[in-house]
Design a protein that fits this description.
By secondary structure, the protein is α/β, with parallel strands linked by helices. The protein is built from twelve helices and 16 strands.
Length: 376
């Protein structure tokens, strides 16, 4: 069983002895605005002799977060919230927010509003959300998110999963979690969690664990073991990460992450453009730079390691960044809130400073697959 060192959560800067008193005092301004949380295990991964350490960058507050930029709901999730705790943006997928706590708080989190007292968007009682899913037979995928669903006790999580699994038309249950990175002992030391996965991830209807490893240093022996145990229990593992300045914004780091994930059986799934969320400017890589980093990273990867797509979770849909020339950028709707826009292809004039889709002017050309006509 894990010891207290691995289970103790840290929510105050004065619990981080490696930070000097002066630095703690300065960073307190950040934690007064955005919540701080980590744990002893994840803190132990930081090389405190390196001020640019990527794990430190992920979880320790930064004064850059005080820059006024962005908003708290950068992707317009409120628009697609049909009932408290449930979002229905894409026809076949429903998202249930089941927790407003994580194993740690990423400084670049796009849902940091959930950790602010004035916001209450999660489904503490999923009854209405489950009924909504039951009433909408086109929903085949249900994503449990938050916060982190694995912060819940296995008993609470199983009650949610059991109700969803009882809905005939739901084929896939996804669990979005960073716990394999933040605290893999949550998985390793809980046989009941693995038994629950084994029970509800069936031959015909799988449970997918949508992990979030941002940097190869998170793939410790314990983290790899947690992934192995989830796979043994019948879960399918994929990985998604934003591209973050100072964490994985170079081809060598991103390539190493893709390769190691493929080695352990965690499919590289999405690399997200960091959303323009309040406090995130210091972590954002401009879109066109991100595109070059992403594709340079894939050059040295096998086909199995280069399955990720570079995307933006925009309010109108999931927009894939698919190409670049000296003068133009190329995008397509990988998913779209409006089904008529799925697979639409768009060409924009290059803007090296663009950090989000909205930073581009009107497209030079749009091509709609659904209408098979050029709307330029």
């Amino acid at each position: 069983m894990t010891n207290m060192k691995n289970t103790k959560y840290l929510t105050k800067l004065d619990q981080i002895s490696e930070l000097g008193a002066e630095e703690q005092f300065a960073l307190k301004k950040v934690t007064e605005k955005f919540a701080f949380r980590t744990n002893e295990y994840y803190k132990s991964l930081i090389n405190w002799d390196d001020p640019e350490d990527p794990i430190r960058r992920i979880v320790i507050p930064d004064l850059g977060e005080l820059e006024e930029w962005g908003g708290l709901d950068a992707s317009g999730e409120n628009v697609y919230t049909t009932i408290p705790g449930l979002q229905h943006k894409y026809e076949r997928t429903a998202l249930l927010l089941v927790s407003d706590v994580c194993g740690g708080y990423c400084r670049f989190c796009f849902r940091k509003r959930l950790f602010i007292n004035d916001y209450d968007e999660i489904a503490r009682d999923v009854t209405k959300g489950i009924q909504y899913i039951r009433d909408h037979e086109k929903i085949t995928n249900v994503l449990l998110s938050g916060g982190d669903p694995l912060i819940l006790s296995t008993n609470k999580l199983e009650k949610i999963i059991q109700q969803i699994r009882d809905i005939e038309h739901v084929q896939i249950i996804r669990i979005g979690t960073k716990m394999p990175a933040f605290n893999p002992h949550r998985i390793i030391n809980d046989p009941s969690l693995l038994e629950m996965i084994r029970k509800y991830s069936t031959d015909q209807k799988r449970i997918y664990v949508m992990a979030q490893f941002n940097h190869p240093n998170e793939l410790t022996d314990a983290a790899v073991e947690s992934i192995h145990r989830l796979i043994e229990a019948g879960a399918i593992i994929t990985n998604q990460t934003p591209m973050i300045r100072g964490v994985n914004d170079n081809p060598q780091t991103l390539s190493a992450l893709f390769k190691k994930l493929s080695f352990i059986g965690a499919v590289p799934y999405y690399v997200f453009q960091c959303r323009p969320t309040s406090g995130n400017h210091a972590y954002v890589v401009p879109i066109e730079e991100a595109y070059e980093i992403f594709h340079k990273a894939q050059i040295d990867c096998s086909g199995l390691a280069k399955r990720a797509r570079l995307v933006m979770s925009h309010s109108t849909g999931k927009i894939e960044i698919v190409g670049k020339t000296d003068r133009h950028m190329f995008f397509r709707y990988h998913r779209a809130a409006d089904p008529e826009r799925i697979a639409d292809f768009m060409i924009f004039k290059s803007n090296p400073d663009a950090c989000w889709f909205d930073d581009y002017d009107k497209p030079v050309t749009e091509y709609s697959i659904s209408s098979n006509s050029d709307s330029s």
